[in-house]
């Protein structure tokens, strides 16, 4: 997947599935306050995803 954009409520991604590009919207569990909050939120999401494999 590739991140296209991010805002205070979530992020827009595109993923290649069977050769087709599909848009995905992932909402955050809270409204981001600033860039530091975005960084920590994305790191926490990555850690969670790694434990759920």
Describe the overall structure.
The protein has 53 residues and is an alpha+beta fold. The chain has one domain (2-51). The protein has one helix at 35-51; strands spanning 2-6, 10-17, 20-27. Strand 2 (10-17) and strand 3 (20-27) form a beta hairpin. The protein starts with a strand and ends with a helix. The model has no long low-confidence stretch (mean pLDDT 96).
Query: Overall mean pLDDT score?
Result: 96
Order of helices and strands: EEEH
Shape assignment: globular
Distance between the termini: 16 Å
Low-confidence stretches: none
Count of structural domains: 1
Please tally the helical runs, counting DSSP H or I stretches of 4 or more residues.
1
Strand content: 35-45%
């Amino acid at each position: 997947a590739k991140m296209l954009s991010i805002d205070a409520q979530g992020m827009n991604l595109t993923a290649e599935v069977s050769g087709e590009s599909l848009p995905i919207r992932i909402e955050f569990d809270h409204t981001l306050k600033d860039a530091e909050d975005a960084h920590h939120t994305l790191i926490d999401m990555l850690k969670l995803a790694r434990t759920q494999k």
